[in-house]
């Protein structure tokens, strides 16, 4: 039996960390959000992550977060997994957002390690347990120490894996050894949160990805997983190299992925302190997108 067939995937394989569309004047654009969500699922996304970093959660209100979940749920119906970002630096606020997301129709919660205060591992563990106990929804723990300043250490993950509602990890720790140890000893589903790790993590038993680049190239990213599952490892590697070129332009060009994704989408402005990409950058992104993603019709990575 192939390894991929035995891997737990509580929310599917291919998830998009969706941008939050805004109107020209900066308000929440729920009509555009509904259309974008339907489009992303139609182009290969198994599920969506709302109100994450890419969704500009630091600058959306609690009411806007709930409204976005409700609008996307109405647009997609009950069968598409929706994971709601609820992580904050404040445990009580995170619990409040978790309960709100459950009421709004989310299927799971994405919970980042508490940031800025740099709590020790015992406090990190207690934070996640408080959130996991607050609702009936499963949790995806988000390990991204480059942003939070706090790692969710492998030993902490091993302990947390025993909680019945802690089911997955979004992995941006760049620690393949630590990830492999947790995969070997738990049933946690590991989702790559860094596009360059999508295929390597999948090859060692990862569940799939939660991707910002999927906002603009969902079927290209999914094609990598499809090829690997079909046993075409050479094809998966080739398709992965293709996606890495686009990912580097979007994620490693000095601008946040939210900015570059919105530069390629009709999704409105970003909110301050983010600033929109300048015209030269937008033109470069669009030219690179056309070169890298517009493929012959017979190629499964065709996006346009």
UniProtKB/TrEMBL annotation:
Pathway: Amino-acid biosynthesis; L-lysine biosynthesis via DAP pathway; (S)-tetrahydrodipicolinate from L-aspartate: step 3/4. The keyword Protease does not apply. It is found in: Cytoplasm. It catalyses: L-aspartate 4-semialdehyde + pyruvate = (2S,4S)-4-hydroxy-2,3,4,5-tetrahydrodipicolinate + H2O + H(+). Its EC number is 4.3.3.7. Gene3D superfamilies: Aldolase class I (3.20.20.70). InterPro entries: Aldolase_TIM (IPR013785), DapA (IPR005263), DapA-like (IPR002220), Schiff_base-form_aldolases_AS (IPR020625), Schiff_base-form_aldolases_CS (IPR020624). Belongs to the DapA family. This is 4-hydroxy-tetrahydrodipicolinate synthase. It comes from Streptomyces lavendulocolor. The gene is dapA.
């Amino acid at each position: 039996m192939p390894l991929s067939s035995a891997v737990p995937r509580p929310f599917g394989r291919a998830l998009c960390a969706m941008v939050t569309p805004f109107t020209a004047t900066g308000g929440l654009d729920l009509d555009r959000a509904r259309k974008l969500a339907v489009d992303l699922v139609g182009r290969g996304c198994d599920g969506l992550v709302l109100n994450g970093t890419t969704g500009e959660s630091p600058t959306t209100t609690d009411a806007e977060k709930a409204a976005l979940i409700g609008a996307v749920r109405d647009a997609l119906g009950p069968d598409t997994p929706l994971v709601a970002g609820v992580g904050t630096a404040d445990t009580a606020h995170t619990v409040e957002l978790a309960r709100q997301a459950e009421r709004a129709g989310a299927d799971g919660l994405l919970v980042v390690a508490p940031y800025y205060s740099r709590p020790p591992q015992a406090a990190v563990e207690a934070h996640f347990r408080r959130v996991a106990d607050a609702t009936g929804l499963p949790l995806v723990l988000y390990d991204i120490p480059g942003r939070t300043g706090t790692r969710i250490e492998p030993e902490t993950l091993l302990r947390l894996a025993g909680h019945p509602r802690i089911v997955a990890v979004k992995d941006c720790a760049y620690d393949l050894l630590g990830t492999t140890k947790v995969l070997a000893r738990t049933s946690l589903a590991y989702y790559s949160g860094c596009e360059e790790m999508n295929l390597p993590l999948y090859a060692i038993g990862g569940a799939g990805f939660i991707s910002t680049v999927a906002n603009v190239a969902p079927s290209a990213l999914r094609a990598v997983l499809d090829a690997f599952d079909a046993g075409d490892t050479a094809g998966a590697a080739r398709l992965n190299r293709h996606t890495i070129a686009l990912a580097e332009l979007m994620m490693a060009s000095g601008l946040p992925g939210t900015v570059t994704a919105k530069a390629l989408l009709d999704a409105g402005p970003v909110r301050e302190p983010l600033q929109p990409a300048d015209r030269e950058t937008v033109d470069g992104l669009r030219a690179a997108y056309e070169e890298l993603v517009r493929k012959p019709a017979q190629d499964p990575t065709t996006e346009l």
